[in-house]
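Lab notebook, bench 4. We co-purified these components, and the gel suggests they stay together. Before we commit to crystallization screens, I want a quick structural picture of the whole thing.
Request: model the full complex, all chains together.
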Amino acid sequence: MTPRFLALAASAALLMAGCNDVVTQIGPENDPIVTNEVGTFRYEAHDLDDVHEEFSFIWQNPGTQAKVLHRGFVPHGSNIIVILDADGTEVYRHDMLFEVDDVTAAGVPGDWTVEFLLHGTTGRIDMQLETLP
Amino acid sequence: MTRLVVWSCLLLAAVPLAAQESAAPAEDTNLSISGPVVIPTSLNPFVPPAPPGAVKADTRPTMADTVGCPDCNPREKRFWLASLELMSVQLLPWGLNHFVRDAEWADISFKSWENNLENPWQWDDNQFLNNQFSHPYHGAMYFNSARANGYSFWGSFAWPFAGSMMWELFGEAWAPSPNDWLNTSLGGISLGESLWRLSSLALDNTATGSERMWREIGGAALNPVRGFTRLVRGEVNDVGPNPEDYRPSSIQAVLDVGYRRISTDGEPGLSEGSADDQWNIGMSLRYGDLLTDVRRSPFSYFQIDAELAGPGDQRKLTRLSSRGSLAAWPLDHASRHQFAVLMSYNYFDNPAFTFGGQSGHFGILSLWGDRERRKFWVETEALLTGIAIGATRSDYYQTIEGRNYDYGTGGGGVLNARAHFHNRASLRLGYSGFYINTIDGADSKHYQDVFTVEGRVRLTHRFGLGAQMSQYNRTSEYVGLADVTQHSTLARVFVSTAIPRLED
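Here is the predicted assembly.
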């Protein structure tokens, strides 16, 4: 192998490594906390750094609507929250980047699905739901 | 909003102050003009032409030979003071948000800088007023940090770009936004040079006593960075000659107060239940003369318009725009037809029409007929427009932060004709059509046009009446969503006040 070939191979390897971003997911270092009770839900995660992950929870909502609070701060990337009612109908979808006080659309009470779509998310998530009659 | 009202009052106050200087004999200045002033045409409300010599350059040169003129060309460039002022302009809002409001986005650190440098830029979702007015206004202050410290228009051009980049990367924890950078930079240049020249109208280095004090306060209100510079350099008290560019060869402002009816349901017409009735205050200022100024330094020929209206769900500020010349070349011996390059800042937000953006224009400005003897003359313009960044109302993109508009680039054209009848009446026909290809927002293309007819009649030298009718059309083609077509009508009637007064 000539030095030129070695140099080329090393450059290619470096290039591939550079293009091959490590996909970061939420881990213990982010102190994720889930509080999932009938009528109330809260999810927190801290010090996120370029997280790419999608996950969901089933939350029991006895009401037809829910109050949505976000007390996090996501300066980079997105933190899209999608909420589906017991029939699977979408009642809420927003990118939660800062403090938010909002309300979902009306839906069917029962098991609601709360989805988190994180893409390049950097910062802190703190999302709470409270049932509304 | 309050700031805009104060500006408008100060601006209108500044014009007569400058106009008082028309008492100087015309032969004393090489900036005086021999014929009636040409008023530039555009989509903006018509302003009747100023009489010859309504406002002339300051012609009190007696001190020029004996007293230094620090603002006269070539000016001393003060890079470090300009940089310090630019950073101060950033430190004030940052400090307010960090120390008083405890805003998390103002928690900057080496980590936030690293995040901003490493991660991709993101289009932000701030409200229309914030992105399309507040950012350009801050850019105007960056621009004037340089302008007030000896830099020419072109020498100051890069400062808002650099200042905005500094803010986006190091002044906040939010990801840098391309929309903020472009709006702050390009809008800052258009607004900045307009405010620079407006503050020059208020200032007078030859004035003393209380007149001088009020002129300095007015200049500082219009251009705070310049006011600060004059204060720290002790120029607020220095008596000396005025630089030539303190006064344009002509100037004319109007204040329109009236009523308007504007459709709100996206359908043509103004029938009951589908339109809002609003009070309406409009201010328009034309600076410079088409024949003599458009080929001089940038913004020697410009126009600035502001409009307030209410009541309604939207903000009272429904319009702020400025458009100024960058360069021009004569196409005939008498320079009655000129090829011109201009740049503009636009902010429109009313129940029928939301658009904000930074644009460049090129095309032909013409003067037809007998303006010199004020019989009948027509000003026309045919311009092509390139929109570097445009924000236009979206039917589908709605964020929780309150953003309800799409961002994109685009282009279009402007056709305008304004006919003057013996300097007593005028009729304007205007058409503007443009398209925006959305880059961020709902995947779409927006095709928009506005057709305007406006008439004005002068009743006295100071007062007149006017009426305007505009038709706005928008067709928005969305990918995967239903297309939307909107037709809106606006009609207004008003009493107009000319500043300075018009002559026969």
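The first strand of chain B starts at residue 251 and ends at 263. Worth comparing against the SEC data before the next meeting. The two ends of chain B are 37 Å apart (CA to CA).
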